[in-house]
Amino acid sequence: MTDFPLIFSAEVARAQQNGQPIVALESTIITHGMPYPQNLEVAQQVEDDVRRAGATPATIAVIDGQLYIGLEPDQLSALAQAKGVAKLSRADMAVCIAKGQTGATTVAATMIAARLAGIAVFATGGIGGVHKGAEDSFDISADLLELAQTPVTVVAAGAKAILDVAKTLEVLETQGVPVIAVGQDSFPAFWSASSTHAAPLRLDTARDIAVAHRTRAAMGLPGGQLVANPIPKADEISSAELAPVIARAQADALDHGISGKAVTPYLLQRIFELTEGRSLVANIALVRNNARLAAAIATELAAPE
Ligand code: PSU
Ligand code: MN
Question: From 241's CA, which of 1, 13, 202, 275 has a CA 20 to 30 Å away?
Fold first, then answer.
């Protein structure tokens, strides 16, 4: 915890006072990752999944220059409908706060906020990574460098095929980030439970993941862990089906000259349109699955050693 001013939701403040498990949730997935009204429904469902699994959800966002750790229901609803909300990563979070503006937090910015609030575990859908064609565009998400320096365990469903997964895994290895597949040897591929890439590490239980988190802290290693949790089999979309959709979305992004932080939201929106919403159904299933695992890890970490 630091002296930086944070505003806690009532339920997060209560959980902190009582030493109960808390799971951080990001808000870029709400403002830039899914259309309204599904984004609000999903945000509410994911919060409920965390509660049902015995932990307290803390959705993170900057609203009118204040850093919120947990949103009240009316704030969540307003954010899901707000237009022109900034997408905040490590680079732009402080400027947004300094100017009194509103922004949604990416994985990187959510990790920063979670650390400030003393929250060790964070659930999301997919992380940012090395984009295809990065050798020309240099487009590498700040999420990867955040994982290397901020001690939060992030539960995601692996990396999307909009990214160059092999290069993403290479950067994570170089940066010293443990990439841990849950219950399988293959690195999960977001919409598909497995990929052609082996995961560097594997753990099978929330308890083992919590022990690994504690061990890194005890060794004084900076940085977090990436927990790659496969989408439930029943909700998968095959990579064969998605490959042409992703290729088309990428070609459209190039044609339209999309660059910088607009790339990921553009691709997600195009894939949603091209699959007539099917990508979103799978996306919702995997985020909820990640919320449940994150709650179990947070519960292990909150228990006495
Ligand atoms: N990948 C997804 N869904 C998302 C994002 C990534 O499958 O919503 C969002 C997350 O907030 C992530 C951010 O942190 O995009 C990465 O953006 P960029 O690639 O510009 O770093
Ligand atoms: Mn980028």
Answer: 202
Of the candidates 119, 296, 115, the residue with the CA atom closest to the CA atom of residue 222: 115
146 among known catalytic residues: no
**What are 20-78's pLDDT values in tens digits?**
999 999 999 999 988 899 999 999 999 999 999 999 999 999 999 999 999 999 999 99
- 47: which residues sit within 8 A by CB, 6+ positions away? 25, 57, 59, 76
pTM over 0.85: yes
Q: Which residues, including other chains, have CB under 8 Å from residue 50's CB and lie 6 or more apart?
A: 23, 25, 56, 57, 123, 291, 292, 294, 295
Domains (ranges, CATH) in the chain? 1-119 (3.40.1790.10), 122-305 (3.40.1790.10)
87 is catalytic: no
Contact assessment for residue 69 and residue 6, using Cβ atoms and an 8 Å cutoff = yes
Active-site pick, 47, 160, 236, 300: 160
Closest CA to 75 of 98, 89, 58, 95: 58
Nearest ligand to the CA of 29 is 1
Give the ligand 1 atom nearest the CA of 104: 11
- Residue of 110, 162, 264 with the most ligand 1 atoms within 8 Å of its CB, for mutation: 264
Could you tell me the two tokens for 54?
């015995």
Task: Please list the alpha-helical segments (H only) found in 225-262.
Answer: 239-255
Look up residue 218 and give its amino acid. A
Q: Are 7 and 58 in contact (CB under 8 A)?
A: no
Q: Which atom of ligand 1 is nearest to the CA of 264?
A: 19
Rounded distance from Cα 262 to ligand 2 centre (Å): 8
Instruction: Give the pLDDT confidence of 173-209 residue by residue, as tens digits.
Output: 999 999 999 999 999 999 999 999 999 999 999 999 9
